[in-house]
Amino acid sequence: MSAVNETLIRDIVSEVLGRLGTPAASKPAAIAAAPAPVPTSGNCGCGGASSRANGSGFRGRFGVFQDAAEACLAAHESFLQLQQKGVAARRKIEEIVKTLAEKNAAEWGRIELEETKIGRLDHKIEKLQIIKLVPGVDWIRPDARSGDHGITLEEYTPFGVIGAVTPSTHSIPTLSGNIVNICAAGNAVVFNPHPSAARCAATAVRVYNEAIYRETGIENIATIIEKPSMESFAAMCQHEAVRLLLVTGGPGVVKAAMQTGKRAVCAGPGNPPVYVDDTACMKRAARAIIQGASYDNNLLCIGEKEVFALENIADKLMSEMERNGAVKLTSSQLEALTKAAFTFKEGQGGGCAHASVNKDFIGKDPSVLAQAAGIALPPGTQLLFAETGADHPFVEEEQMMPFLPIVRVKSLEEGIRRSLDAEHGYKHTSIIHSHDVEAMTAMGRALDTTLFIKNGPCMAGLGLGGEGYLSFSIATPTGEGVSNPRTFTRVRRCVMVDNLRIY
After folding, report:
1. Shortest CA distance to 222 belongs to which of 181, 253, 275, 179?
2. Cβ contact 304:293 at 8 Å
3. Using the 8-state DSSP alphabet, how is residue 228 labeled?
4. End-to-end CA distance of the chain
């Protein structure tokens, strides 16, 4: 990697960490030397063989490392072991991760919420319980052709070691789904987690590796840097064992990954718009919008972030939302919440171009937002909403709070234009509530998003209430879409030339 690229990575990641609460003026401490390997004799659960006897310098870590280079080397060693153990070992890893994610969902959901302090416990638990929906080894099927000139076989083969960055919004669920996808394809993985969710991620990695080692003899198939920093991120990206990057996060870290010179699968930001017209069922639309926008306090990148409603049904839609438990703010309450939830450059007032989200409100419960707005909420309230203009900060920014702005539009054309503006060309997710197929087609073509959901909540796009499969890494900037095992493979062609057919 060039010095220019390394400097760019450091600058961008420093900016990202600064926005998320790491003091920008202070550089992270130098990476500490890795501790000595834990002895592997007696009843430690490591099989009783010494590290030298096994030809490994990384025994006793169970995936958790202080040093990025050691984490990459250990993952590479495990990849070589997985190559020898074949598809059966891949299936066992998939089974272990899915089983343990469900078994530990309540405990891991709790520790993630305690560490990150964002989201909802019931939804954090559910996101781990549904890891079983992530596709695995069965997706890796070869393609074959035969003809007069012989047989050609195309197989999906591993890269080796994948370097992955995980977000604070869904730390253990993203990590777990990534392990299933990546290892099902025959790879190993190194995680540089978000600093705000590193402890819970390391807990899960250690548990996964202990179980995988007991069943397969592979100890470090998924490694993690316990105290991540911009130095560890750059070191992971530069390491020669890392052949492919997987980044799930905001625009800064995505840009950094794409500047490394290595191929990167990037799951970037989204600001999904919702369009509602007068052919839709208002009851169904209201329920779906509340369900999606309130999920984990609107931390999902696919979550409903702003609604554009035809003016002749906007009042009816908002009434149905109130009937289904959402609370509408007055203009003065909205103003108070906006001043608290965003920061503005001095002298710029409330202009959205100069607004940035106050991180203290990201993923917080509706009661926190209500307090800032100056109201008390009925028990069980999941979502706040208010009518706003199209240029309001809540419309323009990916705000990740259980609040939804509702904007009136005069026509389908205006609704699509406003949706395009709000989505910012991320090509991530858009949603429509309509029974007009031509309206669906027009919006789908215009926004050209990776996920386009019709008449359902955002989660339907990932198999929760809709058809499809689950992944928490949706590669929109680089175009791979909802990630699956094939995302992490190379296509290799093997050709035998001869007259081999028997008929």
Report:
1. 179
2. yes
3. -
4. 53
Q: Tokens 């781990």 appear where? A: 128
Burial of 479 from C-beta contacts in 10 A (0-12 / 13-18 / 19+): exposed
pLDDT in tens, 310-339: 999 999 999 999 999 999 999 999 999 999
247 forms bridges with which residues in the sheet?
A: 165, 266
Rounded Cα distance, 233 and 28, in Å? 12
Rounded Cα distance between 9 and 230, Å, is 8
- Report all structural domains of the chain as residue ranges with CATH numbers, in order of start: 3-14+65-268+484-489 (3.40.605.10), 273-468 (3.40.309.10)
Q: Decide: helix, strand or coil at residue 403.
A: strand
Under 8 Å between Cβ of 213 and 62: yes
DSSP symbol at 367: H
Pairwise CA distance, residues 475 & 301, whole Å? 11
For the full predicted model, state whether its pTM sits above 0.90.
Answer: no
Question: What sign does the CA torsion over 117, 119, 123, 124 have?
Answer: negative
Q: What is the CA radius of gyration of the chain?
A: 24
Name which of 31-40, 229-238, 440-449 the model is least confident about: 31-40
Residue of 6, 19, 206, 247 lying closest to 100 (CA atoms): 206
* Residue 72, SS3 per DSSP: helix
What is the rounded CA–CA span in Å between residue 493 and residue 155? 7
* Phi, psi for 431 (deg, rounded to 5): -140, 140
Contacts of residue 148, Cβ cutoff 8 Å, sequence gap at least 6: 499, 501
pLDDT at 503 over 70: no
